[in-house]
């Protein structure tokens, strides 16, 4: 197992470098003149402009710029934005917000998705099963953008149950955006649990458990559920990595100052260093949680061995 | 028992039936087991309500995209009168008017063409990239495969919306032909550039699954070229899963287009797009909620059509899932 993890960790390095280079190369093509835009109406003197360009390495060829960037990364220097604010500081300010949003989303996803999936799975083709199938199809089909607006309008504006935007009310203000962010995965978790349970209900060990005379509740909770949850747990684990990087729309609509919002603002403001820094971090989360999930799989299911 | 023996046995049975004076079967008994994957799938599809709902919605929006003036009830989306600004829906104007006083039904209807065009164009891009890269990686294996798989991993780790967002933001200031236009083509290219990875993995795994089979070896022994083996013998196996993927992806990418346009990097005015309508309606959510509501509903129904069709196709084309 140790060797497997080490090998996987080594394999993430080229992916991380590749992804950050890809973003770097795209951002590098941004000409605009951010320096001049920064100066506003008053023209900069040629000397100041040249000095600023040198400071942000804007004159070097692409590969040299990237090399310098990676060199600085090794001592945690992610560069600064055009207002001299360190990118690392932006990330440490914004990340806790996104982390909270992700936590709320994952908890909702697990709680609602699992409950719906289990109830649908133990009585396949029953009434509740059909309700779950139809509602998950609906949820998956509605774009997150639309879902965000509709819930903002209905629950925020019409009923006034939740704050419309911002994070002034602490955890409570994360609830609605968290639900919107989780919706797609929630539907998927419900379906995955349903299929998994329905499949395991027909397994030999379940019949054995019933033959032993165990009560229905014990058969479902102790036997079926524990085995059925393995793929679900791993999906939720991988989803944490995806949600940490996928909250651009939700954070934009609900005006939540997380890293999704930060990267969106940075793309619009042509803040190359901020974009590259945050996107690389998102890619790292994505890869890291996928690795965790693969290891988790082997821990949960003793039939899986990596060595 | 070989197939030939089975065949003979059936003929024997048929003949036995006729010689014993029983009525001769009106259909050839031997032909009833030769259903192809596709005719089986069609038989399955016809019984699936999900398929009919999806097909109805899909055809409905396709016709809407082809002949929008019929659905717009004769109104011109660009003929506006400020006196009508933000009027709510009425019997004469089913979706009311937007801020500029343009008939909103006409605007929403004309948006279908934009969305479907981008959805279909970007899926074609996704398929071209995915099939080519996947086929090469799966067929040649070894170092080529590892390299292409790593590149796919890199793209896979980048969220679709984020990658396309950056590319579209950068696009207009480069001199790359389609990408610098800010038009539907640019959006389709950006979506394809960050959306091809699943298609690649699908095709790659299908290629690996069949490339060492006997009939491929036979084709090679007969002197078929690599290209011919790939296109005539290997890739047809991947048609079914790729078709399912492509159908669902049209829906996903239509939603992604609206999102990118909403975020301000997709289509720009004066283009007519559901994303633009939602975006400009956002600030008027309190006073004129219908401006966000109608394009949202139509957008969701369009996405739903493709996702339902894809789901139904998946159920029909996967024999293992049949009960």
Plain-language structure description:
The complex is a heterodimer of chains A (307) and B (323). Chain A has 307 residues and is mainly α. Helices cover 75% and strands 0% of the residues of chain A. Chain A has helices at residues 2-28, 34-39, 46-55, 62-73, 87-122, 127-141, 144-158, 175-200, 204-211, 216-245, 248-253, 259-268, 272-300. In chain A, helix 1 runs antiparallel to helix 13, helix 9 packs antiparallel against helix 10 (216-245) and helix 10 (216-245) packs antiparallel against helix 13. Chain A is flat, with a radius of gyration of 24 Å. Chain A starts with a helix and ends in a 7-residue tail after the last helix. Chain B is mostly helical. Chain B has one domain: MetI-like fold (Orthogonal Bundle). Chain B contains 14 helices and no strands. Chain B starts with a helix and ends in a 6-residue tail after the last helix. The model of chain B is unreliable at 11-25 (pLDDT under 50). Chain A binds chain B through residues 14-15, 18-19, 22-23, 26-27, 29-32, 137-138, 140-146, 149-150, 152-153, 157, 242, 245-246, 248-249, 252-253, 263-264, 267-268, 270, 275, 279, 282-283, 286-287, and chain B through 50, 150-151, 153-155, 157-159, 161-162, 165-167, 169-170, 173-174, 251, 255, 258-259, 262-265, 275, 278, 282, 285-286, 289, 292-293, 296, 299-300, 303-304, 307-308, 311.
